[in-house]
Amino acid sequence: MAQGHLAPFRCLAALVRRCRPDARVTFVATSCTAQSLRAHLDDEGIAVHAIPFSPANASVRSFQRLIDLFLASESLRPAFHQFIVELRRSDPLADVHVVEDMFLAWTVDVARGDPDLTHSVLLTSSGYGSALYFSLWNSVPLVPNDDDDDCFILPSFPDISVHRSQLTNHLAAADGGDAWSTFIRRQIAAFSRADALLVNTAKKLEPKGLSMLRQWLHNVPIFPVGPLLRAARSALPEKATTTSPILAWLGKQPPGSPAADMNGSESPSSGLPGGFVERMEAAGRGLVVRCWAPQVEILAHPATGAFLTHCGWNSAQESLACGVPMVGWPLSAEQFYNAKLLAEEMGVCVELARGATAALTRDEVAEGRRRWRGCSARRLKCGPQRDERPRRCRR
């Protein structure tokens, strides 16, 4: 499981323990994920149970390998079922509730096999982004609008359209019989059989997104349980302290001056032109970090003036919580629809580009900066501004 999914689960576990100190939480995870979880847990009421999982080429970064990984995860069902059986046997009177990641639909079958078990799905992304993402994959093959070949209307949400640039190549090419479409439909079917859907958002933050989910899954109770965020003071592991060279560098910058650019927990470092880092650092214009960075601490720092983000939902919520305006460059999955939410619905983000292969010129970057400055100035003066144009497909 990627860090973008693990972090909300850790926060949810801590929330459960704060609200119900007598409750015991157990993470059931693969051996590799279990090791990562244990490194971040310091509550004796939260345990980790590891089950073996060794898919071939698990570390290869490609969409096909991702599909293979998720399909292989369905082989974990017998081990998970055995864990539940042993848990029930050890304490027959205990109330057991299973909370699954949204890509582990097979767990609902295990839960439905025991009438005393309850089962929820945790959506780690935004309500709006999740609704669009799953609705699009449930509607493949996608058919463009009659009036615009680059515009797609969602059958489930006819008042919302997406542009072709907001579709991954795999989504645009999907025919409904491909492996990922079939896998996603299994997850969607499981949603309707769950006892509840938990969403990493808040009612006041996403009234429209929650309304869309309830419209789409009208027979399932939906509860906003977010934002599931780490506090800045507890975001750093023991090995990283406030003496971090990153925070030390920020401390030397004027308030609101640098822009933070985080590539995401699962993204490899992007290639940079030869000599770029040396020239930039020699001029005192920036700092390049090629390892783990304390994102929440960076966003909370008074020097940070903007956040160039891939629009993953954890990062977006952290930026909102710290009051840092965003420049969006969504790369994959539901990030395009999180960006749509942040830019078009909330007015807290300016999209600079879309997709991992987008190439920007100096002039386009300058134009993005101009738009961001204008957006920030309007928000400081007037508060959130909605686009008054007709709700058509926006490029």
TrEMBL record:
One of its GO terms (molecular function) is UDP-glycosyltransferase activity. InterPro entries: UDP_glucos_trans, UDP_glycos_trans_CS. CDD domains: GT1_Gtf-like. Keywords: Glycosyltransferase, Transferase. The keyword Cell inner membrane does not apply. It comes from the Eukaryota. SUPFAM superfamilies: UDP-Glycosyltransferase/glycogen phosphorylase (SSF53756). The keyword Endoplasmic reticulum does not apply. Belongs to the UDP-glycosyltransferase family. This is Glycosyltransferase. It comes from Triticum aestivum (Wheat). The lineage of its organism: Eukaryota, Viridiplantae, Streptophyta, Embryophyta, Tracheophyta.
